[in-house]
Amino acid sequence: MDKQLSKKEEQQLLNALQAAKESRRKMESKEDEKRWADIEAPIGLAGGLSRLNKQELSAIRSNHHITGVSSLKKQELIGVLERSIPERLYSYISKLDDARLAVIKQVAERGGVAVSTLDNRQVEYFTSWGILFSGTVNGKRSLVMPEEILHSFRELSPKAYRDSVQRNTTWIKLTQGMLYYYGTLTEDELLALIARYTGEEPDRAEFISVIEHSIEYDWQVKLDEIGYSNIRVWDSGKVKQEHEARASIPFYPFTKEQLLLAGEPDFVDRNPGFQAMSDYIRREYGIDRQEADDLVEECIYAVRIGDSPGNVIQFLQSNLDMSDLETVRAFMDYTRVLFNSTRQWFLKGFTSIELSAAAATGGESDDAAKAVVYDFATKAKVGRNDRCPCGSGKKFKKCCGA
């Protein structure tokens, strides 16, 4: 039996958590101070590298696959990197997408110095390759490109890397779009889908290198022993288990354009259920669109990870005042529609309405019946001859299930 904590133990735990939080805050503050320390511009590559510690220099060496120098002292390693990085610039550029290339172009076009608009993770990505260094120039947080890198980049012909960058951009956006809707894909599944949507089977090693390169910069995808997942997937094993339970159902056949759009940063699928709930929250609570959308987006992710309607209602109650039964019932209705219209990770990108309708009409195997269409009035799965949960009064098979 679990032991209940005493008041003293609870306070000790809270104090420990607060101390850990404060320690983390101080560490982040120290890192930020170092990241944006004054930097001279223009700067040589050796000067930029000398701002880093041995561990950071070793990471740059590893990223560029420079071997046989791990035992060198810091200054000796800087000398090796100073010679090697410009020589490897084309190889590096050929792994980029449009977004990262645009950052490099912007800094280069401004003579090697540009005010930073990147977040810390993105800044650290460029530094970890020895391409751009961060610091404060004339009181502004800036990105500085070493003169050797600037010279080498200007020497490169855009024609030399244009096709690779365009291909990489397509690969990355398609991957992010697929994982937005499917949640998790194994490496083989992802490669097969990329081949289907591009019409060309990618080189496995090259594709993996491009995707892993992008993960370092833009935290939308993560990699584990199962495969590749959307960053919001908490349990990739559970997602694949649900996929395998529906082995006879294909992944939803999105168009290439739909996946490319879903692969854009901060994309949100504002389906009818999403829009209806957001509009209701804005109207009833007088909050702005972004705040309402953020609340509904969290509900969307709860649906995608297989959470229950009751838990979604509890989340909404913790953020919004539901002081009367009428308001609770309204949110139950909006939540029902949200569940039934959201493309779910467990359902391979289908909505529960689509799969239940297919099962009812014989369009899919019995696996399709594992999709649950919610009716808050009965809290039961909706059968094809039941009244449609949308409230139309029609049978499900002649309304939303048609």
TrEMBL record:
InterPro entries: SEC_C_motif (IPR004027). Coiled coil: none annotated. It comes from the Bacteria. It holds the Pfam family SEC-C. PANTHER family: ADENYLATE CYCLASE-ASSOCIATED CAP C-TERMINAL DOMAIN-CONTAINING PROTEIN, UPF0225 PROTEIN SCO1677. This is SEC-C domain-containing protein. It comes from Paenibacillus oceani. The lineage of its organism: Bacteria, Bacillati, Bacillota, Bacilli, Bacillales.
